[in-house]
Design a protein that fits this description.
Number of strands: 12
Number of domains: 2
CATH superfamily of the largest domain: Nucleotide-binding domain of ferredoxin-NADP reductase (FNR) module
Distance between the termini: 17 Å
Largest sheet: 6 strands, antiparallel, barrel
Number of helices: 5
Strand content: 25-35%
CATH architecture of the largest domain: 3-Layer(aba) Sandwich
CATH topology of the largest domain: Rossmann fold
Bound molecules: flavin-adenine dinucleotide
Helix content: 10-25%
Amino acid sequence: MNNLHFYKAILTDVIQISPTVRRLILTYEQPVHFKAGQFVILKFEGLNHQFDTRSYSIAGQVDANSLELCVVFKADGAATPLLFGLQKGDLLLSSLPEGRFVLPVEPIEKTLFFICTGTGVAPFRCMIKELLEERKHNLPIYLFFGCRKKEDMLYKEEFETFAKIFPNFTYHPVLSREQWDGLSGYVHPHYLKVLETTREGLFYLCGWTEMLKQTRDNIKNLGYTRQDIKVEFYD
Ligand SMILES: Cc1cc2nc3c(=O)[nH]c(=O)nc-3n(C[C@H](O)[C@H](O)[C@H](O)COP(=O)(O)OP(=O)(O)OC[C@H]3O[C@@H](n4cnc5c(N)ncnc54)[C@H](O)[C@@H]3O)c2cc1C
């Protein structure tokens, strides 16, 4: 962490996409290259916390020099109140893209499961787009997205559009705090049902620890190994 170099990035756009989540567009002075699934580390000056950096998954590439982040507000947090207080045109300090939570380079001959809650969907937006649009992956891809309410279904229209265009992609938002005509409760019974008839799977889990640990245990109990399960913890 100490050897990291931080680059100037201008906050060029801020888009509120749910009551607590914003898309932040960061524009760097040079083109930025990343692998789907990676994150950047932002450095905050004057942060009231022992660590002055926070990591954010890359949710998309806007143009050669600009990345999109998707950040949820944490009222008692040190960094997010600062981030949410920034205006268009403000300066941030950012690392280059980091991290090994990425897709294998070689073709994937397995059913893919993306399981997340909240802003954990951000890296999956890039990974799923790459698989469908660039790699033309034609084996099944499932996205199970745990949300509290309908308003928390980040990037809903995009995933719905993918599901319409690509028959091998299925989008499963699961709501825990609002009645609706889709899947309800926690994500676990829903992906487990699909796993009853799946022979080989590769799993990507992203978000807050509690849900991910339970998911990892459930998948391991079915006989899948460490190599089959990639996890990015946000806390
Ligand atoms: C790889 C990764 C990707 C992430 N992507 C996203 C994302 O896309 N969207 C999103 O909303 N959040 C993401 N997070 C969570 C984000 O980094 C912050 O934890 C979150 O925004 C809350 O920050 P805060 O300062 O407001 O809260 P705080 O409660 O002040 O801090 C959050 C917690 O992180 C710990 N922490 C922070 N920095 C460090 C550090 N350098 N070393 C060790 N522990 C540390 C703190 O001790 C604290 O428990 C990601 C986290 C990781 C690790």
